[in-house]
Amino acid sequence: MRLSLSENTNIQELRNFAEWLLKIGDGLAGDTTDGESIVHIPSDILVKNSETALDDLIDFVYPDMLSNLSVENYFKDRAILAPTLDCVTDVNNKMTAELPGQERAYLSSDSMCTKEENMEFELDAFSPEILINGINCLGLPPHKLVLKVSAPVMLLWNIDQTNGL
């Protein structure tokens, strides 16, 4: 991977690449035209536009994934950065589909506790779609979370520190 250090790593090239990534993240890279920027991506890191682009990207970042599922740092040492949560969902769904085993879906709670005096109003005003089913935002899991045995899961909060979660 381009950001890994080895004996043959050119430190200046690595530093330039890191600065370029930071400029992109800060919105400073590229030529600004009418509020939009055109960023030129080096050809050696460009995923060619094809029908298998996502498969090619996953294979590049996670080579031989199925035989490395039990390797402790395999997933910790790699990442695919995505511009939107929809792209993250596509990558996660694609990678989960490649894992062996049967999928299991977990649904979020989509009801609310209501007081009796406001029950009819609250039930009409806050349907399940409004509460969470249609929300896809940072920090919340999707309404339907599909997992398989051996699928890596990243916890964003310390849920139960005494048990290692």
TrEMBL record:
Cross-referenced Pfam families: Pif1_2B_dom (PF21530)
Entry protein name: DNA helicase Pif1-like 2B domain-containing protein
Record InterPro entries: Pif1-like_2B_dom
Annotated DNA helicase Pif1-like 2B domain residues: 131-165
Organism for this UniProt entry: Arachis hypogaea
